[in-house]
Design brief:
By secondary structure, the chain is an alpha+beta fold. 18% of the residues lie in helices and 21% in strands. The mean pLDDT is 89.
């Protein structure tokens, strides 16, 4: 797990309030409301396999469209080898995998929404219903690729610091190379912290010259007890976007981690 490195730009502490007190807490009716996350069986194994294979095929299709010439038998765990010495192509690929329309999901979006609705005990939708949502964020998913010992991961942050990502619940779906040394990091219970206890960058973080969309946590008045939940192949990590998470350096020496990122909101 990464330590808090220096971030460029102005910093701020929030007001003395808990963001969730004013927002829609989709975890409130769950047995995991206090920690803000759970790891559970996701879809039926056949659907999980279809999802994993479909995401792999999508990534390789985009790689070939960008001129990388990837054979169908290659594994995603070797992505860092396939992309070696072609950094500009990696950046182009990451851009295309950031906001993908639901029509490209290998399994039915309502099937996913139904399963997560069961976990949270309320009807949920993959479509962001809130006014003022930037169009690219309304109905999309993302694929994250984190190479070994790289800076491909986001810094520690809360998604809820971006207004259009509030009032939601997040999914981390392992696709390839996700294990106890590479899966997403989070701080249990931090979704209930006062913003006055957290210092962050005032806008999107810049760390070592790399720009991120989200503000970055720079310090906290509470202990950062970072853990790494490790969902298995047919499991999913469901967590509140108000939790501090990220900073998930891939500590595997020779395995790329690939995961699917989805968000759901209350269905009205």
């Amino acid at each position: 797990m990464s330590a808090l490195t220096e971030a460029e730009g102005p910093r701020q502490c929030g007001e003395g309030r808990v963001l969730l007190d004013d927002d829609d807490d989709l975890t409130a009716q769950t047995s995991w409301a206090a920690t803000g996350y759970t790891v559970e069986q996701f879809l039926a194994p056949a659907f999980c396999d279809t999802l994993r294979i479909g995401i792999r095929q999508h990534i390789f299709r985009v790689m070939n469209e960008l001129g990388m010439r990837v054979e169908s038998h290659e594994s995603l765990e070797r992505y860092h080898v396939l992309i070696e010495h072609r950094r500009h192509l990696h950046e182009a690929l990451v851009t295309q995998l950031n906001k993908i329309p639901f029509t490209r999901l290998p399994v039915s979006p309502p099937l996913i929404a139904e399963r997560v609705s069961d976990m949270c005990g309320i009807p949920l939708s993959l479509v962001n219903p809130h006014e003022g949502v930037p169009t690219p964020w309304a109905s999309v998913f993302g694929i994250r690729i984190v190479r070994p010992r790289s800076t491909d991961h986001n810094p520690l942050h809360k998604d809820a610091w971006l207004p259009w990502l509030r009032n939601a619940v997040n999914l981390y779906v392992p696709i390839a190379g996700s294990n106890e040394r590479s899966s997403l990091c989070l701080v249990p219970g931090s979704h209930r912290w006062s913003e006055a206890d957290i210092e962050r960058t005032s806008s999107g973080a810049v760390v070592n010259g790399r720009h991120y969309t989200v503000p970055r946590l720079t310090s906290a008045r509470r202990p950062l007890a970072i853990i790494r939940p490790n969902p298995a192949q047919h499991e999913v990590l469901v967590f509140s976007p108000y939790l501090i998470h990220g900073g998930a350096v891939n500590l595997n020496p020779d395995i790329t981690r690939v995961s699917l990122e989805l968000r759901l909101w209350r269905r009205h």
